[in-house]
Input
Amino acid sequence: MSDAILSFNRVSYCYPDGTAALNNCSVTIRRGTRTAVLGANGAGKTTMFLHLNGILRPTAGHVSWEKTPLDYSRATMRNLRSRVGMVFQNPDSQLFSASVQEDVSFGPMNLGLEKKIVRERVAAALAAVGMTETANKPVHNLSYGQKKRVCIAGVLAMQPEVLVLDEPMAGLDAAMQDELAAVLEQLHTSGMTIIIATHDLDFAYGWADEVIVLQSGQLLAQGAAEEILQDVKIQNELGAAPLVAEITRSLSLIGIDLRDKGYTPRTKTELLMAITAQSRQEATL
Ligand SMILES: Nc1ncnc2c1ncn2[C@@H]1O[C@H](COP(=O)(O)OP(=O)(O)OP(=O)(O)O)[C@@H](O)[C@H]1O
Ligand SMILES: [Mg+2]
Output
């Protein structure tokens, strides 16, 4: 199993108004993995993310980068923020430049990179999110989904080691969600560690290696996506189950086992392929 890149050791966080948003949470994010963070509204997902690049500092416990607890010095924070790229839940809290191009350039310019390199990174990041054509548009004229894509481009242009996205799919149309999933897949293949907060259990089941489930600021579960999301107790806590997991389970109750060499289908495509393979097998018997 790969090494811990970021970890929480008994982290609690209380907002200044007294809200206890995280309570004694210990979680590990492993380098190169895809992690989905799940939980109801107010469970603490965004609060957890704000600790990942040091915007918030635990009230108790500690956050570590590669097993070294953060000391929150200026140098540590600068280093951490160049390694951990954060895409916020609300795009309006992230965008502030006049044009799309300027906004996406801001991060890499701040890293002190040469202009030519900045231009190349900005072009590649905008292409990755399908926003090349809007490069010269004023940010305030973009639609909500377009603003989200520009935020993602701004972080990609920094080439972070860890990409943290707070509900990136919310507000995107189905085609753009598929495109974003493809971009994330490419980034994962290139070795990036990706952490996503989402309410979309179907996406989490098909995409994630690891799942973290929060409930009222407490860690309810962390583990392999297929184990955690097939657990009926956790499904009850979440108030829903991934559709593919439900269909697979229902079929197994009537004697149809879709597992192939221990592998359970996790996406709609895999489910359809497994059903087709089963029916072919039946036909040859
Ligand atoms: N700035 C703040 N001041 C006080 N309380 C806050 C603040 N931000 C969040 N909270 C509270 O902390 C708790 C956790 O909120 P958080 O935003 O982390 O939840 P979340 O899981 O991201 O929810 P959602 O799914 O709605 O985005 C909630 O009770 C929320 O009301
Ligand atoms: Mg949130």
